[in-house]
Write a structure and sequence with these properties.
The structure is a homotrimer of 211-residue chains. By secondary structure, the first copy, chain A, is mostly helical. Helix content of chain A is 73%, strand content 0%. Chain A contains 8 helices and no strands. Chain A has helices spanning 2-22, 30-52, 58-61, 64-82, 87-111, 116-137, 151-167, 172-193. Chain A is globular and about 50 Å long.
Amino acid sequence: MELRHSIELLGVAAFAASGVLSAGRKGMDLIGVAAIAFVAALGGGTIRDLLLDRHPIGWIASPDFLWVCLSATVVTLAWVRVRQPPHRALQTADALGLALFVIGGTGIAEQAGQRGLVAMLMGVITGAAGGVLRDVLSAEIPMVLRPGRLYVTAAIAGASLYLALEAIGMPRRPASVAGMIVIALLRFAAMRWDVRLPPPGLPAGDLDPDM
Amino acid sequence: MELRHSIELLGVAAFAASGVLSAGRKGMDLIGVAAIAFVAALGGGTIRDLLLDRHPIGWIASPDFLWVCLSATVVTLAWVRVRQPPHRALQTADALGLALFVIGGTGIAEQAGQRGLVAMLMGVITGAAGGVLRDVLSAEIPMVLRPGRLYVTAAIAGASLYLALEAIGMPRRPASVAGMIVIALLRFAAMRWDVRLPPPGLPAGDLDPDM
Amino acid sequence: MELRHSIELLGVAAFAASGVLSAGRKGMDLIGVAAIAFVAALGGGTIRDLLLDRHPIGWIASPDFLWVCLSATVVTLAWVRVRQPPHRALQTADALGLALFVIGGTGIAEQAGQRGLVAMLMGVITGAAGGVLRDVLSAEIPMVLRPGRLYVTAAIAGASLYLALEAIGMPRRPASVAGMIVIALLRFAAMRWDVRLPPPGLPAGDLDPDM
């Protein structure tokens, strides 16, 4: 319980730092950068809680999420004024944050009575929706949906493994750890060796089904 | 009841297929395309349910929505690898999906005790918000808000007619059918003859009321 | 109570008019412009109510918000056909609308039992999220997050002052007025003298913490 909350706070810090860095080239002011960091770190859990009607939502119930987010933003902004951003460390933190958010979100959906595909989707939303909102606020196609990231793919794979292991009788704790390891490993593989899904093979022309 | 649920599932399939096709030129990976399809097919109903505080929201209460969405995505992706996308069929399906989503969403708002403008807006949101979210995730101005689509216009006209006919005493079923026919006909007219609203007549300069 | 509701309606009208004008250069149709106006005027309060689980949300409980929004949209569209948009008047209305929305939203969060950082954030969201959604629908980086606006900054400063004055014992009404004055003055200062925050000092290169 205590350990879990601590690790969640670490995930929030990692996502906030990555939000600050990705806002660097957008021409926002200081407060705009902080807003992006908040959305990146807390957006996924917020959408999950709204969809599950789980109130008060995470950061309203535990405002320490907000303070950790704010602290990580300030530290990141101070850090980049004196030295290079620690990319390797951030990538690792982001991968661990994703692993924890996805499995944690899946577990919260199970507590709320969800199973199977819905529980899996809640885990994926918890881990990936913050990054989607961050990029939408930057008027960009979400990075997590683009080739070569295996971001949502890793989330789906880890949440599915966790749910499958539980379904065949494995206790929650080792199943959680297995799911998290798969997520982190897939992300590391995507970053090191440029592993990617096959292209969707859609025609690139100006399709417009609305017309 | 059964018929209605079946038609709703057909609407979900049509919107998912149209989401897949519109994601074709965005440079997303396979999972990114699937995410766009989910958002296009289920986003409108999700926003309506959140606004009306209607829980569990549609696809959590009935996960068959998710399976239909997934199946339509896979079939569309497989289809476009072997032959041209069936544009005429998709346009028809999209128009029917819109007709059903708008009138269905208006009816759900009435069940939740809403009347008049609020009920009409809920219908429009059910039918059009999925397409808006789809385009926002692609960093584009939503197609449904652009000239020559009559998309939101058709939704407003159909929902208003349905509510007006009910208000003057027509039973729900024929009023629903009349509303749906108007929506589908307006969409077909927009596609065939390029019917469009007058331009808003706003100055095109760099207005910036924030400054 | 009555006065407050009247001022809120004025804020809605100002934000709707500013939404119409900012949609001018986007190539949307008439209904698209109206949709942007609704989102700009009602989006912030809607997100606040969803986050606080406050139902029915504002414009469902009081549909006069919708009618005011619609009227302001029609009047603005008619106005710009015969004469220049009244920029000075609109800027003033937008600044007053922001002042009222932020302090009003903070007060609503307090009524819902929130304090400190959460209450402040709810005020900021009430005032600024509508403008964020408006720009997201136009596929642009939100103006309120860009340098030289002091938009979110003014909201934070006013809400914080209001909460601080209350915390040291000042009654709600004068504390509200002080918070609103600070917001309006900061916005006027940003518009007249181009006051701005220091740049975030982030490296402008192609940082990509997702990779």
